[in-house]
Amino acid sequence: MLENFSFRTIVEYLPLFGQGLVTTVWLSLLSFAGALAVGIVLSAMNLQRGWLFRVPAKAYIDAVRATPLLAQLYFLYFGLPRLGIILPELVVGILALSLNSGAYVAEIIRAGILSIPRGQVEAGVASGMTYVQRMRLVILPQAFKVTIPPLLGQAIVLVKDSALLSLIAVAELTRAGQLLASDRFMPAEGFVTIAAFYLLLYYGLKGLAALSGRWLGLQPARSSI
Amino acid sequence: MIWQQLQSLAGSYPLALRGLGMTVMLSLISLVLGTLIGFGLGILRTGGNRLISGLIGAWVDLIRGTPFLVQIFLIFFILPELGIELDAFTAGIIALTNLAACFICEIVVAGIRSVPTGQVEAALASGLSRWHRMRQVVLPQAMRIVLPPLVGQYVLLIKDSSVVSAIGLTDLTRVGWLVVQRVPNGLLVFFLVGLGYFIVCYPLIMLARRLEQRMGAAHGEVQL
After folding, report:
1. What residue ranges are annotated as transmembrane (chain B) (predicted)?
2. Which CATH number, 2.60.120.430, 3.40.50.970, 1.10.405.10, 1.10.3720.10, labels domain B2-218?
3. CA-based nearest residue in chain A for residue B68
4. pTM value?
5. Could you tell me if residue B85 is left (phi over 0), alpha (psi between -120 and 50 degrees) or otherwise beta?
6. Preferred mutation among B68, B162, B198 to probe A, highest tally of A CBs within 10 A
7. A60-102: per-residue pLDDT in tens?
8. Which pLDDT tens digit goes with each residue over B145-161?
9. Which terminus of chain B is more solvent-facing, meaning fewer CB atoms within 10 Å of its CB: N or C?
């Protein structure tokens, strides 16, 4: 019963929760870096005129968006060994998160670039700029600004998604809650505590997103996270 | 060897159908309930009562700030401690409905706020009651903003339903997990699982895109 909610046990397990939190943070950071790399490559492919790069990029993005992360995670977890690639669970998890979030990041970057008014491009052309100069000096600096808040929104999604890695036995925050639940039969203590830690991360990132919007002089966009 | 695997896979198609059925049922029930509750919450949230609006806002933030997996565990393991007995299916429905309702609430709030105040004032001046204002003036105009992300939300809901496999429900993802223990070909098995979701989700993604374009075009917003 909840009258017996044991703060003492939570304090006792605090080092475990701390480790889990630290693992969740750094594996999310690594995955986000991976997602940025995947997203930049995909959006560059997606903005090409020729179909050779555009079609595979689009197909990849659609495939990722139309299937659950958990199925993708299991695809890699059970599928990679089949190809003779044996990786630790943690690496498989980071790979899955990067490949999954990368597709969403690609869409954010593409929307950012397409949000630049055509007049800007035309002005660049009229000033005799080359394609690379236009991209580097006109489009990307403006697009960069617009993409920061939605990218932080994607970071929030990624942190929450990382909880699924507990299902392939990665020792992150949710796993710490599961351990407390199964070792001591205290699911309430375990899961309420990790929920609090996730909320901490959520409000931190949300605050950062709001701040970045103000720094960049953007309207406080209502993100759909 | 691949032939044997294919045969073994073909043998487990009744299981796969059951899994697909479970995924569709979970998604459909929580989609309908979540939409109804979400609209109700959204209308209450914009209703002007500070206390109710604040409470709904806080709850939505709690749900948006925690992983869905953690929410399922909380519902499945803690409600029984409070004396509410429930099986995995009910727990899954509650968790999914709650998640959908919270996200749809936010979408509805954004839609209602997008309606110009002049419209509401005109309705007030015409002597329409609160209910009629909402039903005949505000909501029809809000739907233009609400519809595309609403369909997108349904896709998220179907995908999130895969997470309930963690409490032992035999949905499509769980079936993949079960089959891969017998047929050791993770690539093939989870490709097929993914295909199952893709067939359901992809048309909805396309629909959301079309709606977005059409709703934008209908109001003469030029996409640059």
Report:
1. 20-44, 56-79, 91-116, 187-205
2. 1.10.3720.10
3. A160
4. 0.90
5. beta
6. B162
7. 999 999 999 999 999 999 999 888 899 999 999 999 999 999 9
8. 899 999 999 999 999 99
9. N
